[in-house]
Each structure stands twice: as structure tokens, then as C-alpha cells.
Amino acid sequence: MTFDRKIRIAPSILSADFADFGREIRAIEAEGADWVHIDVMDGHFVPNLTFGPPAVKAFRPHVTTFMDVHLMIAPVDPYIEAYAEAGADMITAHVEAGPHPHRTLQAIRATGKKAGISLNPGTPLEAIEYLLDLCDMVLIMTVNPGFGGQKFIHGQIDKIARLRGMIGDRPIHIQVDGGVDPKTAPVVARAGADVLVAGSAVFKGGSVSQPEIYGANIRAIREAAEAGI
């Protein structure tokens, strides 16, 4: 994956039709999704339970773009290899998920995958300052993780902007997840984000039989984000 800071839209399939993931993934890609975002939750680190490695492996044949796997689990280290083998292109772990995030990032990179680190809304940037050189991406949560459809936390905008300054010219993506829609997209893009995760805002109103609605939603988010830069 060649690095650049163009806006990428990464629909979260947490908002897709759970009975039809294969066709849902193919539909969002055909309608302009740049990445496919997989939210993995364990019912412990966050109050919800979603996709184990077998599910991610089942999604893989349908993903032709880039499979972005966000691990909201603790402990995280014992499962890195399984999600890598399932076909993840990027594996993102939470800095709050264990005592040794440096080791976690090393373990992800050792699998040959891109490595990301995520921060919950209450976690300061200082927690990752000495981890950036191991990161391909930093994910700023703009909601408390665990559920889709939550309202955007505007207090995270300053964190995104400060992170952009910390990164400097290093080839590190800034991803934002939570409450992203055409109204918030220009704000996060202006602050420095380049990968925008959106679930409800992409899938609302559409279906595999009406995928053009997904396309319109993706374009609306992308155009709003690009207009904000």
C-alpha cells in the first residue's frame, strides 16, 4: 500500500446486514469504499461481542480493497496471529488493552501486517508518543467504543490536530472512528484525519438490492471531508 494522505472512506460492516456480509462487502466496494473496517469486540474490553477469527477469514474472499481489523479486545496479544492468518491487512490494537503496547505493535509487525494503535476518548496522546515509530496508523475514537450509531464527541478534534503535529512527516495515517457523517467529516479532515470510518452513515437507507444508496452516502462523506481540507 503506497502511502498518501488522500481521504479514504472505510465503512464499518458492524452496520451491515449480518445475514448477508459477503454481498454487503462487495456492494460497498463497488460503490466506492476504499477500505473495509472490521470491528472486533470481546464483551469484556467493550460491552459488545462481534467477530472472531473464523468470521474474519470468511469475510476475506469478499474484500478486494484493504481489510482494516480493529481489535477492541483485552488481552490482545494472544489473538494477533489468528487475525493475521484470517487475512487482515491492518491490525489495530488499543493502547489501553494491555501493559505492553510496544510489544503488541512489534507482534503485529512480525506477522507482516500493517500496525495501528487506537486511543479511547479519555486517553491522552502522551500514551502513544513513544510508539509512533512502530505505527502505520493511529486511530482516534470519537465515541466510546462498543456500539455503532453513537454521537460524535467534539472534544476529540483538538486531539486529532495535536496528533497530526506529533506525526510530522512520518508516513502514519490518522483514522477516526465514531459518529462520522457529512457534518463531522470536514471537521476531522481539517484537523488532520485521512481515514474515516463510517457505519450508520454509509449503510443507512441502502441494501444489497439498492447499493446505489451506499454509493451516494460514501460520496457525500468523501466530498464533505475533501471540502474541509
From TrEMBL:
Known EC number(s)?
5.1.3.1
Cofactor names from the entry are: a divalent metal cation
Positions of substrate binding? 12, 70, 146-149, 177-179, 199-200
Give binding positions for a divalent metal cation: 37, 39, 70, 177
Kindly state which keywords UniProt assigns to this record, in alphabetical order.
Answer: Carbohydrate metabolism, Isomerase, Metal-binding
Which InterPro entries does the entry link to? Answer: Ribul_P_3_epim, Ribul_P_3_epim-like
Please name the pathway.
Carbohydrate degradation
Domain of life assignment: Bacteria
Annotated GO molecular function terms are: D-ribulose-phosphate 3-epimerase activity
The entry's family comment says: Belongs to the ribulose-phosphate 3-epimerase family.
User: What does the record give as the function of this protein?
Assistant: Catalyzes the reversible epimerization of D-ribulose 5-phosphate to D-xylulose 5-phosphate.
Record HAMAP family? RPE
The entry's protein name is: Ribulose-phosphate 3-epimerase
Q: Please report the organism this UniProt entry assigns to the protein.
A: Paracoccus marinaquae
Query: What phylogenetic lineage does the species belong to?
Result: Bacteria, Pseudomonadati, Pseudomonadota, Alphaproteobacteria, Rhodobacterales
